[in-house]
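in:
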């Protein structure tokens, strides 16, 4: 399990500086129990076109590392989203969307909506903040109609 004491600040900094490392980190968590195609249920896959994506060998449907996770369909860089998620879930920092906007140089409403998405995932887990697990946040399948 990857609790907050398991992510070292140096490793976090290393992740933040490379989009492909973040995608690899997310895909490793997402498919740690093996790949299962959401379209046909097949378990065999090959490398997809985009970084850390997988393509079903039966139906040829490609699934990205971020699809059906908290990072699904975000319209800003994954590095910035990962920073917000890490600070909220692991560090326990409850910064305002204005602070994130100022720090990351993205729109305040974008920060607010993504932070709200994270909060919904945390509420769905029903756990204390001290026991928040990054694996559960990444694996949390979101319902896009709720957001």
């Amino acid at each position: 399990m990857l609790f907050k004491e398991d992510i070292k600040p140096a490793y976090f900094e290393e992740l933040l500086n490379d989009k492909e490392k973040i995608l690899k980190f997310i895909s490793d968590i997402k498919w740690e129990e093996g790949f299962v195609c959401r379209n046909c249920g097949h378990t065999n896959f090959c490398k997809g076109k985009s970084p850390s994506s997988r393509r079903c060998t039966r139906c040829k449907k490609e699934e990205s590392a971020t699809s059906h996770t908290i990072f699904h369909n975000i319209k800003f860089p994954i590095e910035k989203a990962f920073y917000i998620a890490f600070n909220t879930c692991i560090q326990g920092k409850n910064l305002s969307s204005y602070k994130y906007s100022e720090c990351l140089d993205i729109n305040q409403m974008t920060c607010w909506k993504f932070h709200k998405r994270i909060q919904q995932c945390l509420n769905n887990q029903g756990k204390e903040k001290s026991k928040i697990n990054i694996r559960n946040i990444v694996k949390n399948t979101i319902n896009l109609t709720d957001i």
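note: The helical segments are 9-16, 19-30, 78-90, 97-104, 108-125, 134-139.
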